[in-house]
Amino acid sequence: MRFCSQLGEIDMGDFRAIEKGSMGRVAYARIAPNEDLVTGIEKLCLSEGFDNAFVRGALGSLVDACLENREGKYSRISGPAVEIVSIAGEVRSQDDGALVASLTGVVADTRGTIYGGSFVAGFNPICMTFEVTLEEWLPEV
Amino acid sequence: MKGVNENSAKIDDKGQLLRPSRPRTFKHPGKPNPIRIQSENSPQARHFRLAMAPGKSMFEALVEPLAKMKVYNASLTIFGGEYDSLSFCVAPPDPKKQAVIAYSKPIRAGKTQMIFGNATLGESMEGKPLVHCHAAILTGDGQIKGGHIITENSIIGAKTIFALVTSFDGIKLLQSFDPETNIALLQPVRGN
User: Fold this and answer.
1) Pairwise CB contact (< 8 Å): B23 & A59
2) Are B86 and B149 in contact (CB under 8 A)?
3) Which helix (DSSP H) or strand (DSSP E) does residue A41 occupy?
């Protein structure tokens, strides 16, 4: 059995179910209009020096939202503004030194209709403001 | 479904986008601040499990117990629960064009089940507690909706509703005027 993830396929033979660690610092940020939600969170981690982090709270608005659905297809939810209701996800450092945020969440359009999916990096510009709380994750080596 | 897949460059026969459509960059009324990410950090978060009391407004049930613990700045995950009444706003374009968007008039959702929500506790420009909350809800007439919750006008039902509070020491979340967007926003500053 193999699991597919954004980081590639993981063979069950090497599958590690538990990563032990502890919470480190906490950061709160306000990200400004027209910045991208996903890369904005990655840049926040860079500026705060977080290699790995969990999203502990997020709300704000997007100009339009672009969510990835099943089978690699996309939905565009038109604003402005599309309200960010909630986000779950994390940022992980990669072997090449890059930081990758994997974020899923729920958004609401200008009529309050809600949609959910995975936020596509580079395609979710912030409208008015985005408030996010990240907690640093310190894995045991 | 209006509002979805507009301006799409490439869609399949079910109306699904086969690749993301290009993001739009919006011009705001004021000059942008060159600092695009305003952030502050604290050495460690303090966590609390908050019980929000039946019959109180969400605002009171959240602000009052946290103030007793001297928590004035925090990020909250609001768990599901029932509200005797709840009001929320959506964010369409500002008809007066003073900002890119403006909150709509409050929409009364009636007796509502909140699915979950996120909130930020900070301080208003008048120096009073301010709660910014977005949530997904099941309205009294059975619709699943989402938006900006008016916590002062949302009354907790007969059962206690719980929340996870992540508070920050050394960071204040202050509402202040943002020249770029021409509205007042919560912004982090150092301080207790």
Assistant:
1) no
2) yes
3) helix A37-48
Amino acid sitting at position B37: I
Nearest-angstrom CA–CA distance, A120 and A114: 17
CB contact under 8 A, A113 and B187: no
What's the pLDDT at B18?
A: 76
- Select the residue of A25, A111, A124 nearest B42 (Cβ to Cβ): A25
Q: For the segment B105-159, what is each residue's pLDDT rounded down to a tens digit?
A: 999 999 999 999 999 999 999 999 999 999 999 999 999 999 999 999 999 999 9
Pairing of strands A82-93, A99-108: antiparallel
Give me the residues paired with residue B145 across strands.
A113, B137
- Out of A66, A83, A127, closest to residue B148 by CB: A83
Residue pointed to by tokens 């660690």? A21
What is the length of chain A?
141
pTM for this entry: 0.91
Residue type, A20: K
The answer to whether the Cβ–Cβ distance between A34 and B134 falls below 8 Å is no
In angstroms and rounded to an integer, the radius of gyration of the C-alpha atoms of chain B is 19
Give just the sign of the alpha carbon dihedral A41, A35, A65, B117: positive
Judging by beta carbons within 10 Å of its beta carbon (0-12, 13-18, 19+), is residue A135 exposed, middle or buried?
buried
Look up residue B28 and give its amino acid: H
Tell me the chain B residues in contact with residue A44 when contact means C-beta distances shorter than 8 Å: 37, 39
The answer to whether A64 and A79 are in contact (CB under 8 A) is: yes
Cα–Cα dist B143/B166, whole Å: 30
Nearest neighbour of B146 by CB, restricted to A27, A66, A112: A112
Residue B149: strand pairing partners: B88
CB-based contacts of B89, cutoff 8 Å, min separation 6: B103, B104, B105, B106, B107, B147, B148, B150
- Cα separation, A82 vs A59, whole angstroms: 11
| Both tokens assigned to A53 | 């982090």
